[in-house]
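A further point concerns the way the authors explain their paired sequence and structure data. For illustration, here is how one protein appears when written out as sequence plus structure tokens:
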Amino acid sequence: MRTARLLFLAFLLLSLPAAAGIQLTPVGPYGGTVRSIAVDPSHSNVLYAATDNGVYKSTDGGAHWAVTSARFGDFGRAVWEVAVAPSSPSTLYVNAPGGVYRSLDAGKTWQARGVNKFMSTLAVDPHNASTLWAGSQGVDRGLLRSTDAGATWQVAAPLANAILEDVAFVPGHPERIFAGFTTSDPQKILRSTDGGATWEPVSSGL
């Protein structure tokens, strides 16, 4: 999932210096696997990292990090993914083993939302901080949508044999959404042109 993509990205970055003379400097955070990184769209020096030891925050472009999170339910501090709401950068969401959690104060405090299941990814609508997209690997496996900041979820696209890997929005056109999956089915990408009301496969040739 995202961990594999981050490891692949790290491999590519580590292979660049020999080819292009680029020098890379590790900036942390230290103490566990970094599973995802999110950048505050209004302050590019503000970064958030989801790790096995919680959510870390940097306000100086990664030079220094401080943990911002307490325990997430009964599953400790581990976090799989952190997402910043583009329309409200102080609103954060995390995907943790205990479910989805939200912060309204840039990570200072966190509140559990109304879901307690394994989510494979998490994305926030660029124009509505209360609309979330996620992938479920439970009984209702597929692409899920919440319009109330994660309190309740509905299945937007059932996918019995697939795992949602990523959700992307077209800049300037929030009604256009793409979702990518890990699946043995030939259709690995779905597209919506109506804000997620309907979906169609667009992955011919993949």
